[in-house]
Amino acid sequence: MWNHQRSLLDLCDFLFGSLATCLCADALFLTEPTLEPYHCISRTMAAQSETHKQVESIPQLDSTNYRQWSFCITAGLQTLDLWLVTGALPPLYQARPVPTNAAAVTADERARMAAWDSANERSIGFLSGAMEEAITRRVQDTAETAAGASNQVTAQHWWDQTTTLYDITTPATIYWIFVQVWE
Hints:
By secondary structure, the chain is mainly α. It folds into 2 domains: 1-57, no CATH class; 60-183, no CATH class. 67% of the residues lie in helices and 0% in strands. It contains 7 helices and no strands. The chain has helices at residues 2-29, 38-56, 66-79, 107-129, 133-147, 155-166, 171-182. Helix 5 (133-147) packs across helix 6.
């Protein structure tokens, strides 16, 4: 079902992102609306098209191609500025910001937490979109278990559980590597 809805969702994100970028650019640069708004949209659409091509080039994770998948998905997450909330090792890993005073959260702290939450959700969506459905369910279940009492499943939980479950050498993996070398 995901694949049938994916093209429609991608189109909506694509169009909304272009429109939002133009509106934000006008607001940021305090420029008057021009008679040629399509220049902004065409530049944004070109950038999003390149990102979409990269996302489409990532192979779906099955039980035999973890190494290839992890290389490609890491590059994709780095391109989208999502790697630091997903699989980066400390000290680069960026944990969810914590307010200095939980009773009086500032607007800046609230904005940083919202930005982190957004990046976390986008990372999980990116990861799950590049996995076969059965693998997605298995990783989700183990990530929820790993989150434990905190009850907040993060992209890092997803990454760690995927690595634990699928970064193994099996006869199928050895055969797949043999076939790749032979070709």
